[in-house]
Amino acid sequence: MTSIWLIANGRSGSTGEDAIRAAREKMEGLGASVTRFIDLAEEDLPDPGDTPPDAIASLGGDGTAHAVIARYGPDARLPLMILPGGTMNLLSGKLHGRDADVDAVLERLLRGAPVERRMPLLTGPGFASLVGVIAGPATAWGDVRENMREGGIGAVLEKMRDAISETFEGAPIRIAGMAGDHSAIFIEPQADGQLHAWSVQTEGLGDLAAHGWAWLNRDFLGGPTEKLTQDRVLTLESARRRIGLLVDGERKEADGPLRLEWAECPARFLATADA
């Protein structure tokens, strides 16, 4: 029988008691044994000690997954199961397909033939991304997404006005050593050992609408884009000291010039979709 530690954040809107109970019952119905449940809202992630479980399962969004990866990824004994329990589920989408729900993923993991996968990583000062980073003034749209998630229509409309203004009037960014300014650049770590960069084109409201719909569907290259370059190290520059970022969909800022590097994540991920 497979022993699993199940980790979730019980205070998250998407992984409340019902979702946690359903996932646990599904695992046990598939023959696994949930030997420990850790609620990130109540306790720190424990040391697995000398008798680790057969796998660690993260149920939640990308924030929960990153906490689990940071704690258990370096431990070669612990394969990680990343389950889609959040809003964006970007990492789970890469490992299992964008449309797979928790039940489908667990069926594949516990009854199918999952493969172990190592993931490329983008690293920057104080952050890392397994999915990709958007940089530039157009990342102000991340604030719109946050307000949509919280449900305040008045705040959403206000943030939309701010995001439109920032996209068209904010200080553009560029890749050091290359000509051309951009309102947004998407940078993705790929398995070839390089960071791949695309210009996210925002020449009018039509482009913004296309990107907004694509981003809501977790596709950062779904709107008009242009491939710029690829390299193991890329540096972003801006006239502003701070550069706006969306790191795996979450809003952040960093000082410029911003150096980004390719690395390999040490974690052992269990995947059920083709790379």
TrEMBL record:
<dbReference type="GO" id="GO:0016301">
    <property type="term" value="F:kinase activity"/>
</dbReference>
<dbReference type="InterPro" id="IPR016064">
    <property type="entry name" value="NAD/diacylglycerol_kinase_sf"/>
</dbReference>
<dbReference type="Pfam" id="PF00781">
    <property type="entry name" value="DAGK_cat"/>
</dbReference>
<dbReference type="InterPro" id="IPR001206">
    <property type="entry name" value="Diacylglycerol_kinase_cat_dom"/>
</dbReference>
<feature type="domain" description="DAGKc">
    <location>
        <begin position="1"/>
        <end position="129"/>
    </location>
</feature>
<protein>
    <recommendedName>
        <fullName>DAGKc domain-containing protein</fullName>
    </recommendedName>
</protein>
<dbReference type="InterPro" id="IPR017438">
    <property type="entry name" value="ATP-NAD_kinase_N"/>
</dbReference>
